[in-house]
Amino acid sequence: MTSFPTSFDRDDLLKCARGELFGPGNAQLPEPPMLMMDRITEVSGDGGEHGKGHIVAEFDIKPDLWFFDCHFPGNPIMPGCLGLDGLWQLTGFNLGWRGWQGRGYALGVGEVKLTGMVRPDRKMLKYYVDFTKAVQTRRLTMGVADGRVEADGEVIYQVKDMKVALSEA
């Protein structure tokens, strides 16, 4: 499918953030502190629960992460929207990994369930994204996926029908 590897370390993710992995004007990850993963352990265009592609990544939780001091003072919790953003980031990364052209942007999500929290004593988040649809036509490049986030093995976030597109504009 592509000539890219199927796993990426932090240095690779930072290259992606600088536009060096998939080329200028194509899918990029954000730079720290908004980069919500430390490594991608698996990526495919035909694997996962639905056979339409998947991606798995990990994020090491450290008590000094930037969001713990401000959300909320005296009761530090990682904002749930950052976990959702991590899932969107990975969905767009998968589209770029496929060799599809354009800059990524989130289109929405059908359903979000937050059933747990990330506090400073957690050790690792694991993201799972399973594509239900990946479309590339003359007019549209888009991925639709379900995802979940686990904190130390406990499912804490689940999403359905997450949508990310690539646009050359």
Automatic annotation (TrEMBL):
Chief location of this protein within or outside the cell: cytoplasm
Keywords: Cytoplasm, Isomerase, Lipid biosynthesis, Lipid metabolism, Lyase
UniProt cross-references to InterPro entries, sorted A to Z: FabA, FabA_FabZ
EC number from the UniProt entry: 4.2.1.59
Single GO MF annotation: trans-2-decenoyl-acyl-carrier-protein isomerase activity
Annotated catalysed reactions: a (3R)-hydroxyacyl-[ACP] = a (2E)-enoyl-[ACP] + H2O
Root EC class: lyase
Subcellular location: Cytoplasm
Assembly notes: Homodimer.
Protein name: 3-hydroxyacyl-[acyl-carrier-protein] dehydratase FabA
UniProt source species: Erythrobacter ani
Lineage per the UniProt record: Bacteria, Pseudomonadati, Pseudomonadota, Alphaproteobacteria, Sphingomonadales
